Amino acid sequence: MKARVHVMLKNGVLDPQGAAVQHALGSLGFEGVENVRQGKVIELELAETDADKARSTVTAMCEKLLANTVIESYRVELT
Amino acid sequence: MHAAVIVFPGSNCDRDMAVAFERAGAKVSMVWHKDTALPEGVDIVGLPGGFSFGDYLRCGAIAANSPICRSVVEHANKGGYVIGLCNGFQILAETGLLPGALLRNASLKYVCRAIKLRVETSASVFTAGYNAGSEVTIPIAHHDGNYNADEETLARLNGDDRVAFRYAVNPNGSVQDIAGVLSENRRVLGMMPHPERMAESSHGGTDGAAMFRGLVDQIVHA
Fold first, then answer.
1. Which range marks the domain in which residue B27 is found?
2. How many Å apart are CA B88 and CA B11, to the nearest integer?
3. Cβ contacts of residue B95 below 8 Å, gap of 6+?
4. N or C, which terminus of chain A has less Cβ within 10 Å?
5. Partners of A67 in beta bridges
6. What is the rounded distance in angstroms from the CA atom of residue B23 to the CA atom of residue B134?
C-alpha cells in the first residue's frame, strides 16, 4: 500500500518561500496570483495492506517526525 | 562541572562549544549521536551548531529523534541543564523541550555576521554573567532562525521572563525579535546566535565567554 503525506505550513504562519514564488510568478508576467503556499509531499511504500491500520500508522509518523505540528499541518492520502 | 557535547553527522560547532566549555574550566565529554546514554555525572548537555543530518526534512528534526536525544530529553525532564546553540536550538524546539519553531529566514537568505543582542533576563544560569538590558555582540550564522510561536506561547514566554535574548535589529524575521528562550524551569536554553564563537580575543570579541564562565561557576556538580 502506498501513502502520500502532504505537509503544509499552517494558515497564519508566514511562508517566505511561497511569497518569493508568488513574486517571481508576478515578474514573469503571470497576473492574478493572489497567494502561494509551498509545502512538501512525502511518499511512503508500506507493507501494510489494511487501510485503517496504515492510516493510523502514518498519522503516528506524521505526529512524531514527518510534520512539526507547531507550525505545520498534514494530510494523509492512501492509494 | 561536567559538560557533554553531542556530535551529530553534520555538526560543525561541536569543537568550538567544547573549547568554550574547557576554557571556562569544565570537563568535557564528546558524545556520538548513536550512543544511547550520557556519560555518568553529566551536569549540562550542549547541542552544537551545524547542519545535523544535512537539515533534511526540517532543521533539527532527524537529530531530535536520534538515540542520544531520548537521553537528553530524560536528562532535561529530571531537571538537568541543556544548552542548544543555533542548530542545537532547532533540535530543542523539535524535541518539544522548548516551545515554538524556527522557520526559514524571512529574507530567504543565509545570514552570517556579528550582531547586537539585548540580554533580556539575567535570571538563569546561562545569563547570570550578564546584566539584563545590556547589549552584547555575538555572531549569527543561519538560514532557518526565524522564531515562530503562537500568541499564547509568546504571552507565556514574556509573562514568565523566559525570553533570554532579543535581536537589537531583527536579522531573520523572528517574532518579537526573539533570539533565545528558556524552558519553564529555566534550565534549558536555546538561542540562534553563537556565544561559543565570541569567547576569546582571537575571535574578535569575548562577549560570549561570560555565558560559559557563568555556567561553570553556577552549576554545582551533582
1. 2-218
2. 9
3. B64, B69, B72, B73
4. C
5. none
6. 24
pLDDT in tens, B113-136: 999 999 999 999 999 999 999 999
CATH superfamily of A2-78: Phosphoribosylformylglycinamidine synthase subunit PurS (3.30.1280.10)
Nearest CA in chain B to A40: B57
Between residues B221 and B91, the one the model is more confident about: B91
pLDDT at residue B221 above 80? Answer: no
Q: Please confirm, yes or no, whether B196 is among the known catalytic residues.
A: yes
Instruction: Tell me the domain boundaries of chain A.
Output: 2-78
pTM flag (> 0.90):
yes
End-to-end CA distance of chain A, in Å? 6
B1 contacts B42 by C-beta, under 8 angstroms: no
Whether chain B has a CB inside 8 Å of the CB on A14: the answer is yes
Bridge partners, B103 (sequence order): B146
